[in-house]
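Please, structure for the following, as tokens.
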Amino acid sequence: MLEQREKLDEFLFTFNIFENLGMKLEASEYFYKGLVLFYKRDYDESLQAFNMSLRLKPNVLDVLVNKDVVLSRLQRYDEALKVLKGVLNKRKEDADIYINLGNVYLNLNKKEEAIETFNKAEQLNPASSRALVSLGIAFKNVEHFNKALDLFNRALTLREENADAWYCKGLVYRELKQQQKEFEAYTKALEYNRYHAEALYNTACIYALRNDNDNALVYLAKASTLSSELREEAKTDKDFENLWQNIHFKIITA
């Protein structure tokens, strides 16, 4: 993972040199720059790169789809919605586009539209575990927990190593106050993706609630390394209240 990050940094360094020298760069190169910056969680710069790519070569669907994802990460959901509706005019049978659209509706708190859109995605691609997970999240958000669990289980039947499905099962068990099942679901998520920041964070929360401070700090440190947002959240998350004055907690969340 470190080697991959070093290669991405090297690409950006070289790209910026060429750009500063005034060399003519292709739309595809700006697109790749946007992808690299997205991977590095530099969403503002990623959006600028995608916009430059579209300026050089307008209406490229793959670039538009990735621009939508970045806009969503920046919580600019109305703009993301506009982009996706334009893409759908050209990709009406693409389940992944409907999933992205459903996620935007969720973030706009349009839950009924989200469920309808995710249902459309599942109809277009019944073998899509991603569509099932997304639909499950929508049902979880309207507190239809049994339906949500059923959808996550169906997704895992299609692809057992789907870490997001295991993580989302954990979220449902959290709502149902079934802590051991929640913990086991996060453990499975991390078995398939040890870099799942949210699963690491929620595992840390459970250890903290169990007064297992050593494990809580270990998992929180891992999550904080992967996500600055989670590092900030921990400072006010009451699950960690007993650790707020702990010197190691303060170092991790600094």
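The radius of gyration is 20 Å. The chain has a mean pLDDT of 93.
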